[in-house]
Amino acid sequence: MFFKGLGMGFMVQNLVLAMQNTVKVTDIGTASASAALFRSVGGAAGVAALRAMYETAFGDATGVVFTTSAFVVVVVLLCIALIREVSLSTTV
User: Fold this and answer.
1) Given Cys at both, which of 27, 37, 69, 86 links 23, Cβ 3.0 to 4.6 Å?
2) How far apart are the C-alpha atoms of 68 and 61, rounded to whole Å?
3) 57: phi > 0 → left, psi -120 to 50 → alpha, else beta; which?
4) From CA 10, how far away is CA 18, in angstroms rounded?
5) What is the pLDDT of residues 47-90, one digit of tens each?
């Protein structure tokens, strides 16, 4: 759990910074709020989906949930790796 939290903390801040760097200065608040909203909704949907899988796969439920989570992590890492690199803006 410690390493997961540490990794998420490092990743989320960089993604927020990259998102804020790509929008106009007047839209930074809206973009930040949208990112937080979608992160919360995605987390809630993910927990609900994994809970549904856990309850339907009685015998090997932990294995099914772990395998599904590992697949989602790989897909997310591939998506992050494909983010276009943009240099940070120097104006405010």
Assistant:
1) 27
2) 11
3) beta
4) 13
5) 898 888 888 876 677 777 788 888 888 898 898 888 888 777 77
Amino acid symbol at 31:
A
Q: Give yes or no for residue 20 having a pLDDT over 90.
A: no
Tokens of 84: 């276009």
- Contact (Cβ atoms closer than 8 angstroms) between residue 22 and residue 34: no
| Residue 46 CA to its chain's centroid (Å) | 11
CA 69 – CA 75 distance, rounded (Å): 10
Supply the Cα-derived Rg of the chain in whole angstroms: 17
What letter would DSSP give residue 23? S
Task: Give pTM, 2 decimals.
Answer: 0.61
